[in-house]
């Protein structure tokens, strides 16, 4: 599909995120749904970018299924990760987590 | 080999009718206090088919006894040396009797009676030499693909796992199930968010309800523990939530109908099919996390008869296992480049557009056959024989878990 960058993978028509299939440096120009976007931060292989603008509390969809919801408004082409989305089941923990708290 | 022809395997026939693809002699310590002696016996044997397993606790546990019975009578196992300290709580007589009833050579050394460390190591070394001679005489017989039990697990998942390695294993599972083999997938704590779509694949509506209930149980259990089954490395690799990790993990199960639920050490009914293993303990939360690391899950599927495990990894795991070989399927092309020496299959090619999940699935299927015929996996070659068994509690399976066919 010529409207989509080859470095980005759309897994399902209903998804609002795209998956990077290689490391993409900051400042790279990407084509998302025919729209040119400049990447503000480097994004690594396996990470996700917003396919369109996403509103606060909107479900994030990958594989056509919900994988959590947005904790803030996300612009098309921004990285979608733990800083701007959360689980609707169990919070994800980090290495600096205190036992029993996430 | 023609991929459509039913390939013939070779297996070691055991007294219960099951066949093994390996002919291992185990040395099993029955409390941590006997670990060193058992390990020295294995080190002295210095042979890939003499392997160490064990249970560290001094308190008895029904689950641990059941799993040790299943593991010591696994078709890949030809004989067992049990090593006790003497005062521990493990029911060594029950385990010994279970193994002896199968006709396998078995011996229980009790360090406190043998005279101590060196004496027991010497006695154990002599016994292993005799047992090795005895089991070397077991000739392999023809084995069909539908006699094979294959497990799958993911470890060190990242954002690529659900796109490349996991769907490829799913395709391989579909082929194996179609050929009549038994396939097991697991870790209900990593299927959170998939319960609805998974329940729809159950062979009966009642089984579908049981599937939903066991994922609910996992979510409750992990909520009490304070953590989901989600490691910091998962986030480093691009996964943001447990449900994102779960949906990726779920791809390993393929598209076959789900024939039933089993718990660790339960056998799937004859006739093959796809089974979900419920690994999260029943009842109130006790003994800690359901599975403290990947090998705990691998051991549970081996206890249910798995001849080998398909292990998908994005971040790059290196583990193998005692008893049953582990085939490593690498999801991430960068990880594969870095860790080729540990990886059997490069599923990262899918992300570069060089292969489809179906093609890699076929490659894994062919690998399964080669490994079943005796070829060593990378982790076997490297000497990986990880093993871990800890405390758990399970209730018996409900009647809806294994629908009659």
Describe this protein with a few key phrases.
heterodimer, A: 102 residues, mainly beta, Archaeosine Trna-guanine Transglycosylase, Chain: A, domain 4, four-stranded antiparallel β-sheet, three-stranded antiparallel β-sheet, 9 strands, 0% helix, globular, B: 405 residues, alpha/beta, Ribose 5-phosphate Isomerase B, Chain: A, 2 domains, seven-stranded parallel β-sheet, four-stranded parallel β-sheet, 14 helices, 36% helix
What does this structure look like?
The complex is a heterodimer of chains A (102) and B (405). Chain A has one domain: Archaeosine Trna-guanine Transglycosylase, Chain: A, domain 4 (Roll). Chain A has strands at 8-9, 17-20, 29-32, 35-38, 48-50, 59-62, 65-70, 79-80, 85-86. Chain A contains no helices and nine strands. Chain A is mostly beta strands and 102 residues long. Chain B is an alpha/beta fold. Chain B folds into two domains: 24-136, Ribose 5-phosphate Isomerase B, Chain: A (3-Layer(aba) Sandwich), CATH 3.40.1400; 145-401, no CATH class. Helix content of chain B is 36%, strand content 17%. Chain B is built from 14 helices and 14 strands. Chain B has helices spanning 35-45, 62-72, 92-100, 111-114, 117-136, 165-178, 195-199, 205-225, 232-236, 242-250, 294-303, 333-338, 357-372, 378-381, and strands spanning 8-13, 19-20, 24-29, 50-54, 77-84, 106-110, 141-144, 149-154, 182-185, 258-262, 273-277, 308-313, 326-330, 345-346. In chain B, the strands form three sheets. Chain B has a seven-stranded parallel β-sheet, with helices on both faces. In chain B, helix 12 (333-338) links the parallel strand 13 and strand 14 (345-346). The mean pLDDT of chain B is 95. Chain A binds chain B through residues 9, 11, 19-23, 44-48, 60, 62-63, 65-68, 80-82, 85-95, 97, 99-102, and chain B through 158-160, 162-163, 192-193, 197, 219, 222-223, 226-228, 230, 232, 234-235, 237-244, 247-248, 314, 332-334, 351-352.
């Amino acid at each position: 599909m010529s409207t989509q960058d080859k470095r980005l993978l759309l897994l399902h028509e209903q998804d609002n995120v795209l998956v990077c299939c290689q490391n993409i440096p900051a400042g790279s120009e990407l084509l998302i749904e025919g729209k040119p976007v400049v990447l503000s931060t480097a994004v690594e292989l396996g990470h996700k970018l917003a396919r369109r603008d996403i509103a606060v509390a909107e479900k994030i969809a990958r594989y056509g299924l919900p994988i959590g919801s947005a904790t803030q408004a996300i612009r098309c082409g921004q990285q979608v990760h733990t800083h701007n989305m959360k689980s609707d089941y169990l919070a994800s923990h980090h290495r600096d987590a205190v036992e029993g708290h996430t | 080999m023609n991929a459509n022809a039913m390939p013939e395997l070779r297996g070691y026939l055991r007294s219960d009718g099951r066949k093994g693809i390996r002919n291992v002699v185990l040395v099993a310590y029955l409390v941590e206090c006997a670990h060193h002696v058992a390990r020295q016996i294995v080190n002295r044997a210095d042979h890939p088919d003499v392997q160490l397993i064990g249970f560290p606790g001094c308190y008895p546990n029904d689950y641990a006894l059941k799993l040790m019975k299943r593991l010591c009578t696994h078709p890949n196992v030809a004989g067992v040396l049990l090593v006790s300290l003497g005062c521990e709580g493990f029911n060594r007589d029950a385990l010994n009797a279970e193994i002896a009833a199968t006709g396998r050579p078995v011996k229980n050394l009790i360090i406190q009676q043998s005279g101590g460390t060196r004496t027991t190591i010497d006695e154990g070394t002599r016994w292993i030499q005799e047992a090795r001679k005895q089991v070397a005489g077991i000739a392999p017989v023809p084995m069909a693909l539908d006699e094979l039990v294959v497990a799958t697990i993911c470890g060190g998942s990242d954002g690529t796992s659900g796109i490349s390695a996991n769907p490829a294993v799913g395709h391989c599972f579909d082929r194996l199930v179609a050929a009549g083999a038994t396939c097991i997938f697991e870790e209900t704590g990593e299927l959170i968010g998939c319960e609805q779509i998974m329940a729809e694949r159950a062979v009966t509506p009642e089984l579908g309800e049981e599937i939903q209930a066991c994922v609910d149980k996992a979510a409750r259990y992990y909520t009490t523990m304070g953590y989901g089954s989600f490691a910091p490395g998962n986030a480093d690799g691009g996964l943001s939530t447990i449900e994102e990790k779960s949906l990726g993990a779920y791809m390993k199960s393929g598209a076959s109908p789900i024939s039933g639920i089993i718990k660790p050490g339960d056998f799937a009914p004859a006739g093959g099919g796809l089974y979900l293993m419920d690994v999260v303990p029943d009842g109130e939360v006790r003994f800690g996390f359901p599975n403290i690391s990947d090998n705990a899950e691998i051991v549970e599927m081996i206890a249910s008869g798995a001849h080998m495990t398909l292990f998908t990894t994005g971040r790059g795991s290196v583990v193998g296992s005692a008893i049953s070989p582990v085939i490593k399927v690498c999801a991430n092309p960068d990880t594969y480049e870095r860790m080729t020496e540990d990886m059997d299959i490069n599923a990262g090619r899918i992300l570069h557009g060089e292969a489809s999940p179906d093609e890699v699935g076929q490659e894994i299927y062919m690998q399964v056959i080669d490994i079943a015929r005796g070829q060593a996996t990378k982790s076997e070659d490297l000497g990986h024989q990880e093993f871990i068994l800890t405390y758990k509690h399970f209730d018996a399976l409900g009647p809806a878990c294994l629908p009659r066919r």
